[in-house]
Design goal:
globular, single chain, 6 strands
Length: 234
């Protein structure tokens, strides 16, 4: 009986070892970069952008509580702070550049903050990297490092685009006359590279471009922006 038990135990162990050796290995977690921003007094005083190496990611934040009949107040169903949680997809070229820069900066294991004095508060910023090759983070208000400044501008431009999509959706529904100046502002920000990755708001732009009840100039501007990213209505 003991011999039989022993044989069964050995057979079971061998089978388990064989199953483990032929099993598909688990895919390792993707590397990621995150950019967190905090500054009171803004419409979105706090947000976080997370980007994975395949170009997917998320934009999460919280709008500031507002009161009265202001434009910002009308953006929300109530005056209380409202959460924002939207997926993002970044182009391969931008994704590659961001990860290349992060690695050149030792995964942000560097002093990011400028040593200069009397610099205005532009918001608390945190850059973080996590991956199999390393991890790190740095916190700063303003950085003299050109690479840190560049990667900051890219993330803030993506965040601007995400918030602009929210504004366009609201104005398309409730303030159609205001769309003319808003589209002009967006065009200017795109030209100045302060608005990037418009593909994330292509649905909003397409809806405007196809709405025949809107001013022709508004539709033309929306179409021009879509064509600039190769997503004009077919």
């Amino acid at each position: 009986m003991k011999l039989l038990f022993f044989m069964l135990l050995i057979a079971g162990s061998s089978a388990q070892a064989m199953a483990q050796s032929t099993a598909t290995p688990l895919q390792s977690a993707q590397s990621e970069i995150s950019f967190q921003f905090e500054r009171q007094g803004l419409a979105v005083p706090k947000f976080a952008l997370v980007l994975y190496e395949d170009g997917t990611g998320s934009y999460k934040g919280e709008t500031a509580p507002v009161s009265g009949a202001s434009y910002n107040a009308s953006l929300h169903a109530s005056s209380a702070a409202q959460p924002i949680d939207r997926p993002v997809r970044i182009s391969p070229a931008t994704t590659e550049q961001l990860f290349k820069t992060a690695r050149s900066l030792k995964y942000f294991n560097i002093p990011c903050e400028s040593k200069a004095k009397n610099i205005a508060n532009t918001g608390k910023k945190t850059l973080s990297y996590s991956g199999s090759a390393g991890r790190g983070s740095c916190v700063y208000n303003y950085s003299d490092n050109k690479d840190v400044a560049q990667i900051t501008e890219v993330f803030q431009a993506i965040a601007f685009t995400m918030d602009e999509g929210r504004r366009l959706d609201f104005m398309h529904r409730y303030d159609r006359l205001g769309l003319y100046s808003e589209m002009d502002t967006l065009r200017h920000e795109v030209e100045a590279k302060r608005a990037l990755e418009l593909g994330n708001i292509s649905t909003s732009l397409t809806s405007i471009a196809r709405d025949e009840d809107l001013m022709e100039k508004v539709r033309e501007r929306a179409l021009a922006l879509l064509n600039s990213i190769g997503e004009g209505p077919k």
